[in-house]
């Protein structure tokens, strides 16, 4: 099935969170990830901005060694589900195995946003956003939910994102990244430090 003419070659800005548990050679790992992103679909994905690297406590506590987190802004002509499939392929190429929810992750690429789209719909998004922590450990969506339903709760996501997109406005919450970050308690931000 062909795309409508108004959707051909339309670039959308997306944000991706990058994390890894292995602190050894993390800069090299993240540089390799950036190269892998840049090679996607022969320039259907272009990295526009990259945040600083941040050392962060593992999440959830006890899930492995501390993390290094970063974020990138991508410009893409790929639809969101295809972009996510490519992110999962890059994770697998870097040795990521999805064995345990929130387990140790050699590489974690989370699609945080795709323009101002809410997927699959606001009601489904709200259901996942409101899911209690004990259920979050056990359940994962079987479809793409955007924006990431808990990005507003995580300093290790918002601090890198604030480096590259402080004025991006959450399409459901109506807050910018800067505003969401300001609402987090200082205790949540203290453990996230630039490398």
UniProtKB/TrEMBL annotation:
<keyword id="KW-0808">Transferase</keyword>
<keyword id="KW-0067">ATP-binding</keyword>
<keyword id="KW-0418">Kinase</keyword>
<dbReference type="InterPro" id="IPR000550">
    <property type="entry name" value="Hppk"/>
</dbReference>
<keyword id="KW-0547">Nucleotide-binding</keyword>
<comment type="function">
    <text>Catalyzes the transfer of pyrophosphate from adenosine triphosphate (ATP) to 6-hydroxymethyl-7,8-dihydropterin, an enzymatic step in folate biosynthesis pathway.</text>
</comment>
<comment type="similarity">
    <text>Belongs to the HPPK family.</text>
</comment>
<feature type="domain" description="7,8-dihydro-6-hydroxymethylpterin-pyrophosphokinase">
    <location>
        <begin position="16"/>
        <end position="166"/>
    </location>
</feature>
<comment type="pathway">
    <text>Cofactor biosynthesis; tetrahydrofolate biosynthesis; 2-amino-4-hydroxy-6-hydroxymethyl-7,8-dihydropteridine diphosphate from 7,8-dihydroneopterin triphosphate: step 4/4.</text>
</comment>
<keyword id="KW-0289">Folate biosynthesis</keyword>
<dbReference type="GO" id="GO:0003848">
    <property type="term" value="F:2-amino-4-hydroxy-6-hydroxymethyldihydropteridine diphosphokinase activity"/>
</dbReference>
<dbReference type="Pfam" id="PF01288">
    <property type="entry name" value="HPPK"/>
</dbReference>
<dbReference type="InterPro" id="IPR035907">
    <property type="entry name" value="Hppk_sf"/>
</dbReference>
<protein>
    <recommendedName>
        <fullName>2-amino-4-hydroxy-6-hydroxymethyldihydropteridine pyrophosphokinase</fullName>
        <ecNumber>2.7.6.3</ecNumber>
    </recommendedName>
</protein>
